């Protein structure tokens, strides 16, 4: 049995209308030449799967590092090999990564590489083919999820429907908005507005903001179906 989630209305937005979200809600990776070169690889429709996975992995690692910088830290002193004290830091709260199945699972490996031993939850949400509304099919989350900082993983944020449904699941389990960082590969003004308007406490980390959506709700210039290209199931 599936669970129907709250209906989502696609926001009408442009780069101008979502600009005020940057800094507070949206954290865009520095648009360096290296990042643009990696995007050139993964956006190329003729890229091999090996090149796509490698380039995407590089960018996901950057996103993961940026997301971790947004989490709370606390003072933590250690003794160095020469007997001196280093006044350092450590994460102030327990962490968990929560990929939205299936495309979000492409981001797991890089998160595990940066935070070995991190707990991983799962959320599966799919849209009804008739109503176009998101339905919750499956969750696997720890009982103490409300006490953790959550890195919600999904490479695509287009209309915002899936992201909003996943955030709703976390909120109903007691996770504060301010404890959710949505780690996202590419997004667009419509998706940013949809998430930031409903959940202003959620922070979004992304590597690119597209021009917008076409009539079929595909992002432009776009990247294609991320999950299919990453896992090799594209036709």
Automatic annotation (TrEMBL):
UniProt lists the gene as upp_1
In its UniProt entry, what is this protein called?
Uracil phosphoribosyltransferase
Going by the entry's taxonomy, the superkingdom of the source organism is recorded as Bacteria
Q: Which residues cross the membrane?
A: none
Q: Which NCBIfam families match?
A: PRK00129.1
Domain (Phosphoribosyltransferase) spans 30-233
User: Which organism is this protein's natural source?
Assistant: Streptomyces longisporus
GO MF entry, a single one? glycosyltransferase activity
Keywords from the named record: Glycosyltransferase, Transferase
Look up keyword Transcription regulation and say if it applies: no
């Amino acid at each position: 049995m599936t669970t129907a989630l709250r209906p989502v209305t696609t926001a009408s937005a442009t780069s101008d209308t979502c600009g005020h979200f940057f800094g507070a809600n949206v954290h865009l990776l520095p648009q360096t030449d290296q990042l643009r070169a990696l995007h050139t690889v993964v956006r190329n429709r003729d890229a091999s799967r090996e090149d796509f996975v490698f380039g995407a992995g590089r960018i996901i690692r950057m996103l993961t590092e940026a997301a971790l910088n947004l989490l709370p830290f606390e003072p933590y002193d250690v003794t160095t090999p020469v007997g001196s004290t280093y006044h350092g830091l450590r994460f102030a709260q327990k962490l968990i990564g929560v990929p939205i199945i299936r495309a979000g699972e492409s981001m797991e490996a890089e998160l595990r590489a940066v935070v070995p031993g991190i707990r991983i939850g799962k959320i599966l949400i799919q849209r009804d083919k008739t109503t176009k509304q998101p339905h919750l099919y499956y969750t696997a989350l720890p009982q103490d999820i409300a006490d953790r900082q959550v890195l919600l993983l999904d490479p695509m944020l287009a209309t915002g429907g899936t992201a909003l449904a996943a955030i709703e699941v976390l909120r109903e389990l007691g996770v504060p908005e301010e404890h959710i960082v949505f780690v996202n590969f590419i997004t667009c003004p419509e998706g940013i507005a949809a998430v930031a308007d409903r959940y202003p406490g959620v922070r979004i980390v992304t590597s690119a903001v597209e021009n917008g959506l076409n009539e079929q709700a595909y992002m432009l210039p776009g990247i294609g179906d991320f999950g299919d290209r990453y896992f090799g199931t594209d036709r």
